[in-house]
Amino acid sequence: MAVEEPDYTVISQSEDFELRRYDPQLVAQTLVTGDQKDASNKGFKVLADFIFGNNTAPTGGSGKISMTAPVKMQPSQEIAMTAPVNMQQTDGKWRVRFVMPSQYTMQTLPKPNNPEVEIIEVPAQTYGVIKFSGFTGSSKVDDKTEELRTWMQSKNLTPTGDPELARYDTPWTLPFLRRNEVMIRYQ
């Protein structure tokens, strides 16, 4: 069964690197603590609970929301959504996000019952992306982030956001078949 992914346009491509323009999106997000692995598990559970029915539909009752890919996470501070987020962890907090299916608007998306889940509208954005397979341990993600930063610098691109880790596959997918990305917004 195919899982919906956010719409984007590839501006340019070179080996494992791409420049992409993403359309606006609705996302459900939560802030969690712990190391990268623990935060990923905690955040996924909170957001999965929301999409699997711990919500209130606009017409009453609850509604199951289809899973989409990727699941995104980034180190974060709990600050205003319009401010940039620093890459360095503060108090071990991570922002974990699910992109909502494109059929929803802010008015039609069920509302989370859990106050730890926040729904936000993300405007159209442009990203530099590096694609890779395998596991997403901290060391590998750090290496891929540095590769992406170096590539973006060689293209004279100015980052305007912090790195985001995007994972597209289930935990039981064989590592060599996994699709992962590090993404950095730029102008």
Automatic annotation (TrEMBL):
InterPro entries assigned: Reg_factor_effector_dom_sf, SOUL_heme-bd
Coiled-coil ranges (or none): none
Protein name, per record: Heme-binding protein
Organism for this UniProt entry: Psychrobacter glaciei
